[in-house]
Specification:
mainly alpha, 60% helix, 0% strand
């Protein structure tokens, strides 16, 4: 998000999730699911292996 200069709210909207869910993912309160990893890859051009390696 920081490298793309996106705020948490903007990222949540882009991924089609609520801000609270985005916050939970970022704070480790909720595990990432495969669908979200795919969306990060497709919509933000973040390699899936980067996301999975940094869980």
């Amino acid at each position: 998000m920081q490298e793309k200069h996106l705020k948490q709210k903007e990222t949540a909207q882009l991924l089609g999730i609520s801000e609270s869910r985005m916050s939970d993912f970022l704070n480790g309160k909720r595990p990432l699911n495969l669908n979200l990893v795919k969306q990060l890859r497709d919509k933000l051009n973040i390699p899936a292996n980067f996301v999975l390696d940094n869980l």
